[in-house]
Amino acid sequence: MLLDFTVENYRCYAEEATLDLTRTSLKTLTPRPSSSWQEQTWRVAALFGANASGKSTLMGALNRLHHAVGGRRTLLHRPFVLDHERATQPSRYAITFTHEGERYRYSVEAHAWGISREELWAASQRWRKIFIRTQAEGDNSPTIEAGASLTGATHEVSRITTIKDLFLAMALRYRHATLAPVARSLRAMRFIHHSDMERSARLEWVMGRLAEDPEQWAAIVDAIAQAADLGIVGVELEEREVPPEVLERLRRVFRNEDEDAEIPDELLRRLQRHLVFRHTGADGEEYRLPVRRESQGTQTWLATVGPAVDALRLGQVLVVDELDASLHPTLTATLVELFKDPDLNTRGAQIVFTTHDTSLLDNSPTQLLDSGEVWLCEKNADGASEMLSLADFTSTRKGTNKQRRYLAGAFGAIPRVDTSSIRHFVMSMTDGR
């Protein structure tokens, strides 16, 4: 479960910015015995703001740290470039999360030359150190200051950790007894970016689930398609032969690298799988359409809600950049409602997303988002992004029409539109025609 995420000196964020998913009722490091983490945290965090305000940048920072913990060589030093002094300072990341009901805080400082500091702490009544890693430019290996509870092959992992690697990532790779399970919990996040390539990859993922567990996932996919009133009565996975000319082209590609190479079985299986959507026509006859014949909105809905259902099932964090891309506002709200439904979301799954869909702020007919679930991103006069919670505005009591006030500029984080230059250009071009 995600409790908070902080970034500093990362791209447009010069100063420290924190996305906090804990409720104000949490006054101690851990919930009281009569409560739980699920009761003391928000299930939703929605980021609003103008274009280039820093919404996607924050999601990108979280994704970058997620990749780095997974072992990818990821450049974590991405400083704020509108300040010469900041360019030489480290980028900082910190994330607080739960693992097996316990609170952890993991932080990283990254320079252009590598990782200078990395810390992991756990909390019960007070914070206790798991490890602190320090390293200076030019050092061959990191210094690991281990806490009393750190057991496992710590020395062995430190020996293979280079200045470009996260110690936690190497511990995950080599299955460190204490650290690998914590790293896996930190990695339990799913990221969705709306591009044609990403959407295709997620549809491939859906097809993979249908192939692995057709009985369960056929029912899930049918329910997803029918819930959105898309005119679809069913979805099937169909396997077809790959055309011989396609196979021959692939063989030539692989044999350019290795004379004896064959097309990998997994690639063949992916080429053979096709999603087919069943529709009922006006004449009552059933029509079967391939996925490429479906609208972008239909593809986006299936490619987004499939991973969302899995996140709800497993109690994971789903991070979506531009949730409203190609989706009707009603479908966007429906997806958010799934995570806010305590009867459905029993494992503490969370959704963190960016959006321009201000209808989510409306309180008619009911209020979907609480003030603590709404975050506003805005750039200041120095070109640096700032982020604050709508709950910081004391006037946003329950029942306030947040959408109307947001669009009126009461909270900032909206575009400052000035079309005078465009008008001048168009008029001058028209006059000179």
Automatic annotation (TrEMBL):
Database matches in InterPro entries: ATPase_AAA_core, P-loop_NTPase
Keyword annotations: ATP-binding, Nucleotide-binding
An MF annotation (GO) of this entry: ATP binding
Alphabetical list of Pfam families matching this protein: AAA_21
Keyword ATP-binding tagged: yes
Origin: domain of life: Bacteria
Domain ATPase AAA-type core residue range list: 44-362
Signal peptide location: none
Keyword Nucleotide-binding recorded: yes
UniProt name for this protein: ATP-binding protein
Originating species: Actinomyces respiraculi
Higher taxonomy: Bacteria, Bacillati, Actinomycetota, Actinomycetes, Actinomycetales
